[in-house]
Amino acid sequence: MRPGQPRHYLMCRPTYFTVSYEINPWMDRRTPVDTPLAVAQWERLRDTYRDLGHVVETVEPVAGLPDMVYAANGATVVDGLVYSARFTHPERAPEGPAYLKWFADHGYVTHLAEHVNEGEGDLLVAGDVVLAGTGFRTDRAAHAEAAALWGREVVTLELVDPRFYHLDTALTVLRGNDGGAPPDGAHPALAGGGVDVAYFPPAFSPAAQEVLRERFPDALLATEEDAVVLGLNAVSDGTHVVHAPRAERFAAALRERGYETLGVDTSELLRGGGGAKCCTLEIREPAGAHATHLGSAS
């Protein structure tokens, strides 16, 4: 297995994971949740990252916040600047302060959001821009707020299918989410550096689809079969892509592009509407500052 570019992730053990309310189409309170299985799947995901050479830190779970396992929603970190989450639904509102406190306690510069946004669920770094979802969970006003904070272009993409209520359920940044180099022997679409993405077109409005076609003409287009198992809720380090095992066509297409694929089962966590990416918040630090905030991973 080729080495990937080392990454720094924040995760939250699903100690209190259950489905006690319904705020997305994936949630069904009538179906019992196997919390020990969810924990075991989460541990396998965490261990996969560590086996790949990535640093994984954890935030303490809070009783009464079953969705806190979806760490990607807790904040967005670009150039070491932390933009807090401000959740749409009151059931998740306390998660934002819990994640912001972790970052403040670990010495990061934090910004308390004025506008509703759900972290990396809707804010994905793609090269020198940030792709920003809206339509269900994040206000357009948050896009301008994020652009001002990070000094980067933020590209608005409207989501229209409630099954894909966050951008990270409909689009994966495969390369360029922190400036990684293309893998050796890569697909021609990856030649010359730059950004590589995969997405499911019907999840987006016609205008957003046009933006994506113009910016990413060589993007990998996912099928509905892979999208509906949250195959696009994947995590890439530029060489390896961790994804839902049931997204078989997606995995085959990734391998054709030169990526190494690792299927990690997060099916129990899917009951809450999240997969590998939802469980993984990437901490992007300024160049040369990677080790500044690293505490002991747990």
Automatic annotation (TrEMBL):
One GO term (biological process): L-arginine deiminase pathway
Single GO MF descriptor: arginine deiminase activity
Hydrolase listed as a keyword: yes
Keyword check for Lipid metabolism: no
Alphabetical UniProt keywords: Hydrolase
SUPFAM superfamilies, sorted: Pentein
Name of the featured protein: N-dimethylarginine dimethylaminohydrolase
Organism (species): Cellulosimicrobium composti
